[in-house]
Design goal:
Layout: H1 2-20, E1 22-24, E2 30-32, H2 34-44, H3 46-62, H4 74-96
Antiparallel strand pairs: 1-2
Helix pairs in contact: 1-2, 1-4, 2-4, 3-4
């Protein structure tokens, strides 16, 4: 349940970044324009990716292409998607944020 809440919050934050073109990921990192929109897409990715992988694994288990015990690892895959999406968004923001030049 907590994982679903995290996915929905990331989806809402990603939609906001995609529409508004601005997002604040940490206290010191805020993005604007295309940078915010790409970070928003990265934040939105875990929910559909988790749904798609769960569907594919369920389909493969029902077709006897994978053993039934594979279903025990779906939650770990979902956690990896959420943490990975958040980490990718923050790492992307670290590399593409606008550098502030100190004024003399």
């Amino acid at each position: 349940m907590c994982l679903l809440i995290a996915q929905v919050l990331m989806l809402i934050g990603g939609l906001y970044a995609l529409i508004a073109g601005k997002i604040k990921l940490t206290r010191t990192i805020s993005l604007h324009g295309w940078r915010a929109r790409v970070a928003g897409l990265l934040l939105m990715a875990p929910l559909p990716l988790g749904l798609l992988t769960g569907f594919i694994i369920g389909l493969l288990v029902s077709a006897d292409a994978l053993p039934q015990s594979t279903l025990n690892y779906v939650a770990f895959l979902d956690i990896f998607c959420v943490v990975g999406g958040l980490a990718l968004a923050v790492v992307f923001a670290l590399f593409v944020r606008e550098r502030q030049v100190p004024s003399p």
